[in-house]
């Protein structure tokens, strides 16, 4: 019997509702798995709308945890509950082993989805204010350091309202990470950013993680989730529908996808036997096979119809998995 | 506490360093002073000769009326040593009554419209024998001006004076006798008091017109600085909410700390403004050589009431602002903020007429009105019993604490709520539910 994967350790930790536990490993090796966030059977409603429905989740310390889900699925509400902005109607949320109802500390940095800063304030004054408010100490040195690293040093004395969206987002990001929280909650930090600004923030997130910071971020960009996150949690209609590493999530769906590059367009894919869904990405097409479909048979059929530049049997992408869960179901689609 | 002070410091500096605040601070006294100046200039303009036509249906009263009016116009006004004239000088033109009275009045009205005449005085034939029926109209003034004008203050007395002279001569008395129609000067005095320390009776002093202005100035100043300190929160909090600022701040500070920081900033802003204006007011009194009229003993009460009022009103303003999602929402809820300070303003006149009457006394113990009405009563000659301000302050303090508590509960929900602004009933529900 092999060693349990980190994911299995985390799942066990969640099921036993323990924050810390030590796994016994063979010989002298031992690892310490520590939960940064422990959500147990949490519910949250707004009037008649159930935003979060019996949610349990464990976020390991030092990981980057991606929250995905359609708009209005409960991502932001969950993040706000972790940040102690909303209180759950029932269930418990522990952050670093403590139930945090009503308490504030410098341990959590929270970046709401867009905006969140005083637009009339000057950049440096704003960052120092946010830093002092959270940390209770002078943060001038950290402010200068981050301004330089994110290329904002020459705009330090400008008002926030004069900055571009990307720059404002960077300022907001700096305000969040000062003074070096242990848990960073970022609600769609890359939305609307150009690639250069996005790379700046991505680099900063990675650096924060290297320093031991736990990062929870929500995103609609599946590429970001796949490349940046250790684990991915998907919430749909308030319920948890995915939770684990990308590999484990993909493995649970099996290799039911064929990725092809057809020369001369995708018309050759029409009415292909054994294929239940075609996702045309332009240059590449993803074909989802029905259960029991033989990919070799698909290859032969396709080869008879058109020339192919590439053919591979792969696991579904996160994008595809997302669409499978959150896309319109056959009966819904027919209604629409 | 540290976080409250940090939020307060940020909001305070943001406010007092803004151009809008600095301009407002200076422009308000300029506007008030300017309005006095414009009034003064306008009154001087009215001091030029004004032509008045008299239609005398008695046939004997016109000359007496003209004589009385001219004598009245020669009297020194308000003891002005330099003889500054602030009322018009009337030049009279006697017009013989015509058979068609309506046509004559129409013709004269045309002259008034063309600016050739200022006023038409129409004296009926029965004016020398007035009945006891006050509804019977015997003299009419026709003019193009509003109901309240210069002629309304001085000419009615002159017309009556003239008619009285005619009547006296008709019964054989000489109206030109030295004392028969001379006015007796009436001097307004303050009350006689007793020095509590020595027991000596202190003689009353003459009332000074400035003395009547000081209580009103103090009350209006209180209203002004309280509104200027508290009202901006309504829009500012709504804007911060729209910008999602509170979501970030709530990670660092509780909603109560955020609200109290804003309330404290309001107190600081109002104190700054009021100190500026109080010093300015004292300087004006000193410049007018009536510094003794400065109510220095009331200044501590002024500042205590100011703080209590600003705490109450700014907490309420922050709570209302948090319930808004758009600037339009804030505008629609503004009346809820203005009402507590406008009601005392409507009561200024009755309170000044009878500062210790039942209405004034009762209203000065209604907490939202206490600061302004109690201060006004204290500033009036004679003042109020010593315990009344303390009792009023106690009530105000308890009420302000209750408002802060309720506002905190509204604020906590309001800053994270979305959608249309809540109705008053929903706000009440937030207070109850918390």
What attributes characterize this protein structure?
heterodimer; A: 336 residues; alpha/beta; Rossmann fold; Alpha-Beta Plaits; 2 domains; 5-stranded antiparallel sheet; 11 helices; 15 strands; 29% strand; disordered N terminus; disordered C terminus; B: 434 residues; D-Maltodextrin-Binding Protein, domain 2; 4-stranded mixed sheet; two-stranded antiparallel ribbon; 16 helices; 6 strands; 61% helix; 7% strand; elongated
Spans of chain A of at least 5 consecutive residues whose pLDDT stays below 50 are 1-30, 332-336
Using only C-alpha atoms, the radius of gyration of chain A works out to 23 Å
Going by helix content, strand content and strand pairing, the class of chain A is alpha/beta
Largest sheet of chain B: 4 strands, mixed
Identify low-pLDDT runs of chain B: none
Backbone structural class of chain B: alpha/beta
Q: Just give the CATH class of the largest domain in chain A.
A: Alpha Beta
Number of beta-strand segments of chain A: 15
Overall geometric form of chain A = globular
What is the average of the pLDDT values of chain A? 82
Strand order of the largest sheet of chain B: 2-1-3-4
């Amino acid at each position: 019997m092999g060693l349990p994967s980190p994911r299995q350790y985390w799942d066990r930790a969640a099921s036993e509702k323990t924050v810390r536990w030590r796994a016994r490993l063979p010989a002298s090796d031992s690892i310490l798995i520590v939960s940064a966030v422990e959500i147990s059977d949490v519910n949250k409603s707004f009037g008649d709308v159930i935003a979060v429905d019996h949610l349990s989740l464990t976020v390991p310390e030092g990981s980057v945890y991606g929250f995905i889900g359609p708009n209005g699925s409960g991502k932001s509400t969950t993040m706000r509950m972790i940040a102690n902005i909303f209180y759950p109607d029932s269930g418990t949320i522990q952050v670093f082993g403590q139930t945090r109802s009503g308490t504030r500390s410098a341990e959590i940095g929270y970046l709401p989805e867009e905006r969140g800063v005083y637009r009339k304030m000057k950049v440096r004054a704003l960052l120092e204010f946010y830093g002092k408010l959270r940390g209770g100490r002078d943060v001038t040195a950290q402010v200068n350091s981050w301004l330089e690293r994110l290329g904002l040093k020459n705009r330090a004395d400008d008002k926030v309202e004069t900055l571009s969206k990307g720059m404002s987002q960077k300022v907001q990001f700096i305000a969040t990470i000062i003074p070096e929280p242990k848990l960073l909650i970022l609600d769609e930090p890359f939305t609307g950013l150009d690639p250069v600004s996005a790379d700046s923030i991505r680099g900063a997130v990675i650096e924060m993680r290297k320093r031991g910071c736990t990062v929870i971020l929500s995103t609609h960009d599946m590429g970001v989730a796949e490349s940046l996150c250790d684990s991915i949690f998907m919430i749909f209609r308030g319920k948890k529908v995915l939770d684990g590493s990308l590999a484990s999530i993909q493995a649970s769906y099996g290799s039911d996808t064929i990725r092809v590059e057809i020369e001369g367009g995708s018309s050759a894919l029409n009415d292909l036997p054994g294929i239940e869904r075609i996702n045309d990405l332009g240059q590449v097409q993803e074909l989802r096979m029905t259960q029991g479909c033989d990919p070799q048979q698909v290859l032969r059929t396709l080869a008879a119809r058109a020339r192919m530049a590439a053919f591979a049997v792969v696991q579904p992408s996160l994008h595809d998995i997302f669409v499978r869960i959150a896309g319109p179901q056959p009966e819904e689609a027919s209604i629409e | 506490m540290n976080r409250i002070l940090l939020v307060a410091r940020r909001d305070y500096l943001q406010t007092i360093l803004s151009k809008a605040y600095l301009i407002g601070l200076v422009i308000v006294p300029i506007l008030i002073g300017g309005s006095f100046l414009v009034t003064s200039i306008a009154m001087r303009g009215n001091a030029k000769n004004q032509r008045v036509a008299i239609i005398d249906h008695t046939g004997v009263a016109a000359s007496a009326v003209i004589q009385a009016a001219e004598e009245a116009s020669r009297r020194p006004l308000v003891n002005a040593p330099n003889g500054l004239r602030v009322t018009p000088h009337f030049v009279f033109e006697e017009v013989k009554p015509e058979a068609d009275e309506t046509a004559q009045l129409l013709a004269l009205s045309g002259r008034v419209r063309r600016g050739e005449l200022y006023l038409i005085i129409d004296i009926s034939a029965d004016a020398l024998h007035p009945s006891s029926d006050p509804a019977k109209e015997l003299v009419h003034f026709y003019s193009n001006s509003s109901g309240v004008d210069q002629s309304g203050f001085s000419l009615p007395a002159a017309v009556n004076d003239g008619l009285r002279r005619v009547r006296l001569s008709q019964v054989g008395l000489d109206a030109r006798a030295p004392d028969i129609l001379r006015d007796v000067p009436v001097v307004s005095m303050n009350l006689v008091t007793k020095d509590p320390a020595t027991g000596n009776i202190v003689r009353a002093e003459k009332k000074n017109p400035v003395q009547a202005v000081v209580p009103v100035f103090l009350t209006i100043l209180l209203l002004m600085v309280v509104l200027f300190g508290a009202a901006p929160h309504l829009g500012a909090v709504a804007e911060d909410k729209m910008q999602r600022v509170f979501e970030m701040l709530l990670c660092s500070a509780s909603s109560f700390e955020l609200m109290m920081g804003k309330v404290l900033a309001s107190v600081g802003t109002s104190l700054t403004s009021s100190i500026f204006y109080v010093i300015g007011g004292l300087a004006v009194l000193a410049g007018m050589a009536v510094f003794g009229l400065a109510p220095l003993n009331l200044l501590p009460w002024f500042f205590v009431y100011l703080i209590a009022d600003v705490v109450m009103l700014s907490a309420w303003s922050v709570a209302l602002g948090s319930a808004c999602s758009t600037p339009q929402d804030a505008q629609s809820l503004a009346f809820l903020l203005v009402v507590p300070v406008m009601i005392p303003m409507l009561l200024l006149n009755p309170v000044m007429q009878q500062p210790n009457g039942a209405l004034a006394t009762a209203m000065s113990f209604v907490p939202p009105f206490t600061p302004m009405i109690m201060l006004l009563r204290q500033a009036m000659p004679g003042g109020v019993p010593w315990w009344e301000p303390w009792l009023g302050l106690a009530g105000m303090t308890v009420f302000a604490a209750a408002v802060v508590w309720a506002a905190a509960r509204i604020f906590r929900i309001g800053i994270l709520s979305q959608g249309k602004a809540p109705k008053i009933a929903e706000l009440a529900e937030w207070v109850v539910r918390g």
